[in-house]
């Protein structure tokens, strides 16, 4: 069962290394707060699709895919979708 967006927004957490990984994968230079705002915006968007594969949730919106651990809601990475 896929949780509601509110569950993701309430429980999403980050590691220090994920901010560097997100900037590298998206080819950006965003601050930690800007990354958090981007992630929250993607999670909140009604156009975002959420699927679960294995132990991860994949949230896809426009050209960005977020990978979030389904056990602890930790952001693992963000991928550019073309």
Description:
The protein is an alpha+beta fold and 82 residues long. 38% of the residues lie in helices and 28% in strands. The protein has three helices and four strands. The protein has helices at residues 5-11, 16-26, 32-44, and strands spanning 49-53, 56-61, 64-69, 75-80. A four-stranded antiparallel beta sheet has the order 1-2-3-4. A hairpin with a 2-residue loop joins strand 1 and strand 2 (56-61). The model has no long low-confidence stretch (mean pLDDT 96).
Set out the fold topology:
Layout: H1 5-11, H2 16-26, H3 32-44, E1 49-53, E2 56-61, E3 64-69, E4 75-80
Antiparallel strand pairs: 1-2, 2-3, 3-4
Task: Name its key features.
single chain, about 80 residues, alpha+beta, 4 strands
């Amino acid at each position: 069962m896929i949780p509601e967006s509110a569950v993701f927004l309430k429980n999403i957490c980050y590691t220090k290394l994920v901010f560097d990984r997100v900037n590298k994968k998206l080819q950006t230079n965003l601050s930690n707060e800007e990354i958090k705002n981007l992630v929250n915006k993607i999670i909140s968007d009604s156009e975002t699709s959420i699927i679960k594969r294995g132990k991860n949730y994949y949230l896809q919106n426009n050209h960005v895919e977020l990978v979030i651990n389904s056990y602890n809601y930790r952001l693992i990475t963000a991928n550019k979708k073309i």
